[in-house]
Amino acid sequence: MKKIRIVAGLVASVALLAGTVSLMPSAAQAASTYPIIQSSLSEPVPDYARLGPGSNYSVMNTFVTYKSQSFSCWTTGTSVHGDNIWGRLAGTGNGFIADWWIQLKGKTLANTGLPRCGGTGKVPVGYFDSLTYTNDPKSPGERIVTVHGWATDPDKLSSKVAIVVYAQDTGRLMQLGTGQTGATRADVKKVHPTYSSTTGFNVSVTVGSGIPTTFKVYAVDLNSGIQYLLSNGTKTLAAKK
Fold first, then answer.
1. Where are the alpha helices (DSSP H) in the chain?
2. Is the CB of residue 211 less than 8 Å from the CB of residue 141?
3. b/e string for 61-85 if b means 16 or more Cβ within 10 A?
4. Is residue 183 within 8 Å of 198, Cβ to Cβ?
5. Three-state secondary-structure class, residue 167
6. C-beta separation of 21 from 94 below 8 A
7. Which residues face 134 on adjacent strands?
8. How far is the CA of 8 from the CAs of 33, 76, 98, 170, in angstroms?
9. Which of 2, 70, 217, 224 lies at a C-alpha separation of 20 to 30 Å from 161?
10. 8 Å CB contact between 182 and 174
11. How many whole angstroms separate alpha carbon 63 and alpha carbon 78?
């Protein structure tokens, strides 16, 4: 089937007040960039990435169609038109795109020299404890929201884990910001002696105050890059009256 490009709208950027952490397969490996294409107008448009390598993972608000994307590694997942290869977008919490949508001139990501993503052993664990907020003094009508909790990757207990904060947005997850663990959590250490004492996180993002916002907090698996919803991982902040 002949492949043609689809023009789609741009997604507005969201303010980010938290730090980021690189989760490339290796510090020495650079990402490879390829354009994303669409097969026909009758096909589902792959406008957005997913949290993991498969159609069973939630859709993110990371816009991908009609522009080039950088990939850090490839893995296998659910099949799209007979192709079960998926590419992981470079950067923290940027999700996965099916190989079938990537313009590779007869190749797949698996034979481009791009490294394979690590496999998932034990998935990250943790808890979304609470959220707090203050009015943004620099932007009337907006609030600075901080999500609090803890997380760890059982396969790498001494390593920091990337945290990704989303707002639920009409069937998609809109990424608000990223951060990482590193805050001291003596209470978690007491219950789980093998865990690091710095599994805590406090990640701040900016949201509008006029509408209720449902927050979802995910931890990124250090090997595979797949994102997993933390326990108690969904909370709603009411609109400001």
1. 186-191
2. no
3. bbbbbbeebebbbbbbbeebeebbb
4. yes
5. strand
6. no
7. 144
8. 20, 27, 18, 18
9. 70
10. no
11. 20
Q: Reduce the DSSP state of residue 190 to 3 states and report it.
A: helix
Contact of 50 with 59, CB cutoff 8 Å: yes
Residue 98, both tokens: 């099916």
pLDDT tens-place string over residues 190-215? 999 999 999 999 999 998 877 778 99
Instruction: Please give the Cα distance from 141 to 157 (Å, whole number).
Output: 40
pLDDT tens per residue across span 107-143 = 888 988 889 998 878 999 999 999 999 988 888 888 8
Give all strands (DSSP E) within the chain, no chain letters: 32-35, 48-50, 59-63, 68-80, 83-89, 96-98, 125-135, 142-152, 162-169, 172-180, 200-208, 213-220, 227-237
